[in-house]
Amino acid sequence: MGEYTIKLPDVGEGVAEAELVEWLVEDGQSVREDDVLAAVMTDKATVEIPAPTDGVVIWRGGKIGEILAVGSPLIKLEVVGEGNADEAGAQTPVEAPKADPAPKPEAAEPVKPAIAAELPKPAPAKAASMPMSSGAPRAEGEKPLASPAIRKRALEGGVDLRRVVGSGPAGRISHDDLDAYFNAGGNPAATRLARTANTSVKDIPMVGLRRKIAQKMAISKSRIPHITYVDEIDVTALETLRGTLNAARQPEQPKLTLLPFLMRAMAVAIAEQPQMNSTYDDDAGVVHQHGGIHMGVAAQTANGLVVPVVKHVEARGLWDCAGEVGRLAEAAKNGTAGREELSGSTITITSLGKMGGVVTTPVINHPEVAIIGVNKMRTLPQWDGTAFQPRQMMNLSSSFDHRIIDGWDAAVFIQKIKSLLEAPAMIFIED
Amino acid sequence: MSDLKCKLLVIGAGPGGYVTAIRAGQLDIDTIIVDADALGGTCLNVGCIPSKALIHAADEFQLAKHLSKESQIGVSVSKPSLNLAATMKWKDGIVKRLTGGVGGLLSKAKVRVVPGRASFVDGKTVEVAHEDGTTTIKAENIVIATGSQPVELPFLPFGGKVISSTEALALKKVPEKLAVIGAGYIGLELGIAYAKLGAKVTIIEAMDRILPTYDAELTRPVVKQLKALGITLHTGARAKGLSTDKSALVYETSAGKRAQTAADKILVTVGRKPTVEGWARESVVVDMDGPFVKIDDKCQTSMSGIYAIGDVTGEPMLAHRAMAQGEMVAEIIAGHERVWDKVAIPAVCFTDPEILVAGMSPDEAKAAGHDVMTSQFPFAANGRAMTMEAEDGFVRIVARADNHVVLGIQAVGKGVSELAAAFGLALEMGARLEDIAGTIHAHPTQGEAFQEAALRSLGHALHI
């Protein structure tokens, strides 16, 4: 029997470390070649690490949430025949999984044994953790916890103990609890114990995507002085146009939402104010003004917020934008969006659709300088000079990096978008 | 003969029946109890009590034999001898005292005892056949407490050298070679006792291990002791019958080969079955639940006014379950509001060492959907166990991981049966690990292992 060390492979260009987000095997478990052992996450993508050979897991190099350097030992297997323990230094790292379409030559570079020696030992398994001092209260439908004497008293008093709130540890019912129930005339809501304090604390480790989101948000909010500007837009004409286009669309064409119209309107407005389509490297003191408009479109997934990017909106038509948004949103939800599709944005749109609220204060996607937030559409009465008319109204709530964008410029930008959306034909008029 | 009337008629004077009757008497219910055999039923006459007497005698003899050889504690005796007839007489004396005691308690509770065999006539009428004829009893309420009886193997019917536990408790001399079929608790208790009394014991078990209803961790110390006592154990083996010259038991080994073991007595302990015949069950309409009489949570059968308790109503077939049911039924008949709401029915195997279980096993708790934490404390780290030369075994606690409520407690070790009181109380009171850990357990006692197991689950056992 030999020992076979699997190292954290190079999972993407320029990535030096990855976060361990999931163990799919346990110590002592037998694995077959190609079984997935663990999942690691880089800046944007989650990558599964497969077993290169059959074996039994004898060591796992880290806890969930730990950041591991590329090339550091990830897992050790006991394998039939000779392992690779003696030649750990000369061992070619495991082939990088498909997330990296073109492995760089240096991926095959041997890892120095010294690195392996420096690695911290995995923490010893902790003794059973103390969840809380008094235990979780009784859950709905669970058998009430009470001594025989109390059960008997309740039965004789015609009380179903499931209706009595227990104040004791783990929700145990005491004689006092039963007294309180009787005194309250059998109304559990009226007993002084009806609302017990829940002193439990559940510790949820910040790992994976949630940790990424937290880091990004903290950077955005701590480094960028936001200015948020809100204006309302009459989208009645836009909605009529959208309805007409959707009714007449070809079967292969995607259904149009409001987003592709907004994207096109923004592209037109950016042509007049290119500074909106920038990224600000505040460490270097340089604003990169981008020619290509790469729009991030924030999407909610089961794991949290991700921002797939529609590249080169300036070169896409309305239907093209709609198709790309739909494709990327789907990929993000399925977790199949690649690293390329989740990075490189120059300006971002955030829209919660029907959940969009009236006003939001969007957080700029660092290092961009602007984010456009879409609020929900409502039918509101508008005074046309002689009478109130029902109009479809929608707010745009947008934030700008006040270091780069002055309030005046922000206002001009939004007013341009507003004028385009209120007279949507203007979006499509060339020159 | 004369006709009798009463408010409550109890059929069967075993632990379930007599407790029902005594409690009913205390509650001023006019009660009659009927049994064809001696008061006390299987438990007192041919079960729990006489077997424990025999086991005690066997243990004492074993100890004397042990001390007559090598002894590390500085006590030695000359070679002991056994007078089984005297042992049996002593055992019968205890049985007589207890059954006599039951008679006294019944009469103190003003319960009328009618000896004879009861048969239902209808839901309110029972005929009792006895030497002097037949007595017809009309009762408002009837409790069926007819108990259970040993299961017979069709190819090895009881009689001659094939015996049940009843005969095994009344042997005139220790058989030279004893074959035991079935390594359940009854077969093991008696097999171990007779091995200690000098018999060459062979146990045949059809399953792949002894006490198959208990987990292997609990039964391991018993397997070890079987070996130490020179008991031969064949698991995965099936008894086939007597050899042609009737001198040996023929069985099929786990490999499917025929083999035989010479035997002077063949003890068949392959389980017990509820006694659902012999009391004219067909005269009443009580629904069945498999082989058992079906009852609800008040021990009420499908017929109003007819209750059933004890072994006839299902597993676990244990005297203390029957007694608790009987007490409850008497109170229900007296008009009290009662319902079966017990958390745990502890069970003991008086093997060597003893096994005690109360509540859920780790596997049962998991199967019930609980996220559990399990810890055990070995007697090898318990001072009292060391001073008794009884370091084998452990106490194990199964608790819910989220709120530490104890779901089950198990133990194996010498004398652990006495821990049943603590285990049962902890479960019935809804104890959490912290409650057990926070209770002072006297030193030096084996009970400390109980507290230490709880401490260990909480991550801070002191003596390990």
Task: Describe the 3D structure.
Chain A has 431 residues and is of the alpha+beta class. Chain A is built from nine helices and 18 strands. In chain A, strands 9-18-17-16-12-15 form a six-stranded mixed beta sheet, covered by helices on one side. In chain A, strand 4 and strand 5 form a beta hairpin. Chain A is extended, with a radius of gyration of 30 Å. About 11% of the residues of chain A have low confidence. Chain B is α/β, with parallel strands linked by helices and 464 residues long. Chain B has 13 helices and 24 strands. In chain B, the strands form six sheets. In chain B, strands 1, 2, 3, 4, 5, 6 and 19 form a seven-stranded mixed beta sheet that branches. A five-stranded parallel beta sheet of chain B has the order 8-15-9-10-11. In chain B, helix 3 packs antiparallel against helix 4. Chain B is globular and about 65 Å long. The mean pLDDT of chain B is 96. The interface between A and B is medium-sized, with 21 and 22 residues.
